[in-house]
Design a protein that fits this description.
The complex is a heterodimer of chains A (587) and B (277). Chain A contains 18 helices and 21 strands. Chain A is an alpha/beta fold and 587 residues long. The longest helix of chain A has 18 residues. Chain A starts with 22 loop residues before the first strand and ends with a helix. By secondary structure, chain B is of the alpha/beta class. Chain B has a single domain, classed as 3-Layer(aba) Sandwich (Rossmann fold). In chain B, helix 9 links the parallel strand 7 and strand 8. In chain B, helix 2 crosses helix 7 and helix 5 crosses helix 6. Classes of the chains: A alpha/beta (587), B alpha/beta (277).
Chain lengths: 587, 277
């Protein structure tokens, strides 16, 4: 141990910073060094100690073996985004650390702990001139046989933050229980070694959290999968794709337990058609994919519109176009989701606004799909999907989801009957008297193919009406504050905007936030009402071509004076960036 | 038992009132007849049968039956049928289509449906041409066939669906001719009753764009040997025949893919424990 500088009092953070009680820790190491395991235990320990938190992972380009960094932000208050800066960087080794340039916001009072003695530090570290410390992991783990560097690092970081040692030790024990008692004892030793070293670190201790609400640790992808199951989904078909695969891997064994099934298809063309088949048979269905997969599916989503087949398609967006940046987030599939179908094809597009909201929105989206017999595309993204959050346990809720089924179709049964709501009773195979042929060809009310003017107009009108006239209730948007300056945003940009608003407008007098959960169909009336009393508008989104802004201008009554802050990924928005933008906009 | 249920169902019970869009003389008429005859013999009520198709002349079949049907997008009948059968194993699911739909745009699904071996019956009406788009070469068209889209012919070896099916793992492989509706019906019955994925390739002349295919009636002949359960033998046989051998070529013994599926809407409380810190 070789503490280069010790300052027990960290400089005070600015008063407007609502994350004063927040700490961002980065654990860095080469692939296989176990930083992800250590960071996940750290997150779990923090949750057990009552903190909120967020863990994101950053990997090198290799499938295995590259450099890996886990970012953990902890706070006594809800955390939706990574902190603006890194307070503590613990590097087990520095092999390829330079590739995280642009992701590690180190400052002069950040603390960098090197797990190697006399290592040559990369420029990303030396450039910021942070406080430096060293732990000789090699010697420590050699002296104490069987101890692992990542567990020593965990102990050191947890100790520096001030997490209770017993909580960490218990979790390490759980982690190693399968490896036997010796391994468990070595794990405890490693944690203790780390805690011993931590006594020498100068890092602000996290405030004790207030309250004791039930918490979950969940990723956006798990939340989306579980939300869909809560909504009744029991059949899924899908093709693996980053960053959506975790939804499928989470669902596969759990669907089976709940009496459902997930099938791995040969490609996205197959997966979308498999769920068309499953839904035609009466199951609530889903597939999950990302941009390239959604592009392949779009023809058959059009089929589902025409044949009125309910389904949930979850698109976990990543940087595009084409293969783009599969492991980074971007809000750039809005256009293909809303406008990507051929023909006049009314359908529903939704978007969650937080990790926890992935659960609600997936459940709601299933409800919308089933209720209206329409495909619903939910636009999640990588920053939700692959991040692990400590969140409040989401509320139990149940929609009165019911597919309008023709239980006893009579002699004059017509599958696509023109009804008041536009939703027609659907006969399920096996029901006597309900036989019809679902068709992508335009059809008459009976389902019989027709290119007649009246049939086309009536069926188009019915399919549009059922989606536009549906009562979406208050769920169409998340609205916070009622200040005269309104920010309109969506999806994963909501978190950074919310945190920036707390800094810029702590009293909530100047700003209001409108985050759209229902992207399409557009509800211009609802937005106009939400904007009532506002005098200026700023749209914020993560898209170079400002797809959301374009959608708002085309479909909503947006005042001509609306301002825009749009930029592409892969760098996520930080509260400081948005706060600076808001200050400039408000002045 | 009521008098009604006691009455055996006839082919007529499986036909709808819709008049097919096909050209007079099209082979698909008698295949439609064969399909309904087979259904009557199998005896499942029409509401328990689903006929799934993609796009093309022969893909119009579902609406011409009195069963549940799905006329989906081009090339995707097999995944749609797969999704339906896996989620509703109680139904009898039949996929129908043509050579373009099944072997060209749907080629990947064809291979994987054979490999997956779900209990489906796939009826391909092969006329070696795209008829609905008015005469372009399909994967099974002979290389020298001249057309507006590919003047002078494709110069490409035709696709060999039966060999591909065998190699990919189909559990039942047969070839019949539309001019023999009774034999075709009997083969369809056997295909339906055989577990797993069954392919029936039916030679079905297109009298409009391939009038020379009328000659098929003189060229087809029943295979001189019995079906085998030896994949390699079946493949050799079909690779060396003249393309007009009809009959059941292969009957495999692979167990169909059908995971248990019992939709259950019970609460998900069990899954929440894993989210606790």
């Amino acid at each position: 141990m070789n503490q280069i500088e010790t300052t027990l009092d960290r400089p005070a953070v600015s008063v407007t910073d609502v994350q004063t009680e927040a700490l961002t820790v980065v654990m860095l190491g080469s692939g296989g060094s176990g930083v992800m395991t250590a960071a996940e235990i750290l997150l779990r320990a923090a949750a057990r100690a009552g903190y909120y938190g967020l863990m994101t992972k950053s990997f090198g380009p290799q499938i295995r073996g590259g450099e890996a960094a886990a970012f953990v932000t902890l706070s006594a208050n809800p955390v939706e985004i990574q902190g603006d800066r890194v307070d503590l960087l613990f590097a087990i080794d520095w092999k390829n650390a330079q590739r995280f340039a642009g992701e590690l916001q180190l400052e002069a009072d950040s603390l960098v702990v090197s797990g190697e003695i006399d290592a040559e530090l990369p420029e990303i570290v030396t450039g910021a001139g942070p406080r430096l410390a060293e732990i000789n992991l090699k010697t420590l783990t050699r002296t104490h046989k069987g101890t692992r560097p990542n567990m020593v690092a965990l102990g050191a970081v947890a100790g520096a933050i001030g997490l209770p040692r017993d909580v960490v030790a218990a979790l390490v024990g759980q982690q190693l229980v399968k490896k036997g008692e010796a391994a468990m004892a070595q794990g405890q030793t490693a944690v203790d070694l780390g805690y011993g070293e931590a006594a020498n670190f100068a890092l602000a201790k996290l405030d004790r959290p207030a309250g004791d609400t039930a918490r979950w640790i969940i990723s956006g992808n798990q939340a989306a999968g579980y939300g869909a199951m809560r909504g009744g989904v029991r059949f899924a078909a899908a093709y693996p794709i980053t960053p959506a695969t975790e939804i499928l891997e989470w669902l596969a064994p759990r669907l089976q337990k709940a009496g459902g099934l997930l099938v791995q298809a040969e490609d996205e063309l197959a997966s979308i058609n498999m769920i068309v088949g499953g839904s035609f048979g009466g199951s609530a269905v889903l597939t999950a994919t990302s941009g390239p997969g959604l592009a392949l599916m779009s023809e058959s989503i059009g089929l589902a519109v025409a044949a009125e087949i309910p389904m949930l398609v979850i698109d976990v967006m990543r940087g595009g176009p084409s293969t783009g940046i599969p492991t980074k987030s971007e809000q750039t599939d809005l256009n293909i989701a809303v406008y990507g179908l051929h023909g006049d094809a009314p359908h529903v597009v939704t978007a969650p606004n937080s990790i926890a909201d992935c659960l609600f929105t997936a459940q709601w989206s299933t409800h919308l799909a089933e209720s209206m017999q329409v495909p619903t595309i939910m636009l999640s993204d990588q920053s939700f999907g692959q991040a692990l959050g400590i969140v409040e346990k989401p509320a139990e809720l149940a929609f009165a989801t019911r597919r309008l089924v023709a239980e006893t179709p009579g002699e004059n049964y017509k599958r696509y009957a023109l009804t008041e709501t536009g939703v027609s009773p659907m006969a399920l195979p096996g029901t006597p008297g309900g036989q019809y042929t679902a068709d992508g060809l335009e059809h008459a009310e009976s389902g019989t193919p027709s290119s007649g003017v009246a049939d086309h107009n009536q069926q188009l009108e019915k399919r549009l009406r059922k989606v536009v006239d549906f009562d979406y209730g208050d769920h169409w948007a998340q609205i916070e504050g009622d200040g005269p300056a309104a920010i309109i945003t969506w999806g994963s940009t909501t978190g950074p905007v919310r945190q920036a608003m707390r800094r810029v407008d702590p009293d909530g007098r100047r700003l209001r936030l409108i985050s759209l959960r229902l992207i399409s169909p557009a509800l211009p009336g609802a937005l106009a009402e939400a904007l009532d009393g506002s005098d200026k508008i700023l749209v914020i989104e993560q898209s170079q071509m400002a797809q959301f802004f374009g959608h708002l201008k085309a479909q909503f009554d947006l005042p001509a004076m609306a301002d825009l802050y749009a930029r592409p990924g892969p760098q996520p928005f930080r509260a400081a960036e948005i706060a600076a933008k808001l200050e400039e906009w408000l002045s | 038992m009521s008098v009604e249920t006691a009455c055996a169902l006839t082919a007529r019970d499986y036909k709808s009132d819709l008049k097919p869009v096909w050209c007079p003389g099209c082979g698909d008429f008698s295949i439609l007849m064969a399909i309904t005859m087979a259904m009557a013999e199998v005896g499942r009520p029409p509401e328990d049968v689903a006929v799934i198709s993609g796009i093309g002349c022969s893909s119009r079949v579902p609406a011409y039956t009195s069963c549940y049907g799905f006329h989906g997008v081009h090339g995707r009948a097999l995944p749609l049928a797969t999704g339906l059968k896996l989620s509703r194993p109680d139904l009898l699911v039949i996929a129908t289509g043509g050579d373009g739909d099944g072997y060209s745009i749907g080629g990947n699904h064809f291979m994987h449906a054979c490999r997956r071996n779900v209990d489906l019956t796939y009826i391909v009406m092969d006329n070696q041409v795209y008829g609905m788009t008015k005469g372009q070469p399909s994967p099974t068209t002979p290389p020298e066939w001249d057309s507006a889209l590919v003047p002078g012919g494709t110069g490409l070896s035709p696709f060999h669906p039966l060999v591909i099916a065998l190699a990919a793992g189909a559990n039942f492989v047969a070839r019949t001719f539309s001019g023999d509706p009774k034999g075709t019906a009997q083969t369809i019955v056997e295909a339906i009753n055989h577990p797993g994925f069954s392919l029936i390739e039916i030679l079905s002349p297109c009298v409009t764009f391939r009038p020379e295919e009328r000659e098929w009636a003189k060229q087809v002949h029943p295979a001189s040997v019995d079906p085998t359960d030896d994949r390699a033998r079946a493949a050799r046989r079909v690779l060396t025949d003249d393309g007009f051998n009809t009959g059941i070529l292969y009957r495999g013994k692979r167990a169909p893919y059908q995971p248990a599926f019992n939709p259950d809407t019970s609460a998900n409380v069990d899954f929440e424990a894993e989210f606790l810190p």
